[in-house]
From TrEMBL:
It comes from Xiphophorus maculatus (Southern platyfish). Its EC number is 3.6.5.2. The small GTPases Rab are key regulators of intracellular membrane trafficking, from the formation of transport vesicles to their fusion with membranes. Rabs cycle between an inactive GDP-bound form and an active GTP-bound form that is able to recruit to membranes different sets of downstream effectors directly responsible for vesicle formation, movement, tethering and fusion. RAB24 is an atypical RAB protein that presents low GTPase activity and thereby exists predominantly in the GTP-bound active state. RAB24 is required for the clearance of late autophagic vacuoles under basal conditions. Its cofactor is Mg(2+). GO terms for biological process: autophagy; protein transport. It is an enzyme of class 3 (hydrolase). Keywords: Autophagy, Cytoplasm, Cytoplasmic vesicle, Cytoskeleton, GTP-binding, Hydrolase, Lipoprotein, Magnesium, Membrane, Metal-binding, Nucleotide-binding, Phosphoprotein, Prenylation, Protein transport, Transport. This is Ras-related protein Rab-24.
Length: 184
């Protein structure tokens, strides 16, 4: 059996339970899994063919485990990635700190990797704004930041899909987020 050809490697990074697997499930299988949370062990791989202009390319998506216990392993998965989706949970400020960690690391180690910062679980704050622990403007400032190489995009809400002057897009809901916005 011949090995599958992957045209672009994409890696999902972020603290445990932020919703990385849910995003991938939504994108690849158009579903949101309900039921007890099962943490990813090591990493999971899924291939997703997408149409870009007149050709089909295959994304190879590595969904890494968020637990710090697997941190060293996650480094293996982001090596050579064309894009990284760094997720944080809008209701968990510590997850945003963790996202900052991954963004910094990618900026230092993976020069050619496009970085997308994605706030998840917006449905939780829709009914109760007080649950929000990560300020929108803080996330936006960070994504557009003063780093030598700023992140490519910040997503907070797929519904508003607001466009910012820098071209930043916002997607906030794991249920509806579309990784196809990666722009390949
Ligand atoms: N309310 C809500 N819950 C979500 C959302 N996305 C994920 N969850 C829940 O959050 C929990 C963790 O989701 P996962 O997708 O497994 O998180 P993960 O980042 O892959 O976690 P690790 O595998 O530990 O790294 C699960 O119980 C999900 O159902 C969302 O958008 N809204």
């Amino acid at each position: 059996m011949s090995a599958m050809r992957v045209d672009a490697k994409v890696v999902m990074l972020g603290k445990e339970s932020v919703g990385k697997t849910s995003l991938v499930e939504r994108y690849v299988h158009h579903r949101f899994l309900v039921g007890p949370y099962q943490n990813t062990i090591g990493a999971a791989f899924v291939a997703k063919p997408i149409q870009v202009a007149d050709r089909v390319i295959t994304l190879g998506i590595w969904d890494t485990a968020g637990s710090e216990r697997y941190e060293a392993m996650s480094r293996i998965y982001y090596r050579g990635a064309r894009a990284a989706v760094v997720c944080y949970d809008l209701t968990d400020s510590s997850s945003f700190q963790r996202a900052r960690f991954w963004v910094k690391e990618l900026q230092n180690c993976e020069e050619h990797c496009k970085i997308y910062v994605c706030g998840t679980k917006s449905d939780l704050i829709e009914g109760e704004r007080a649950l929000r622990q990560v300020d929108f403007h803080d996330a936006q400032d960070f994504a557009e930041g003063d780093e030598p190489r700023p992140t490519s995009r910040l997503w907070e809400s797929v519904i508003s899909v607001a466009s910012f002057p820098s071209g930043t897009k916002l997607v906030e809901r794991a249920h509806t987020s579309k990784l196809c916005m990666l722009g390949f």
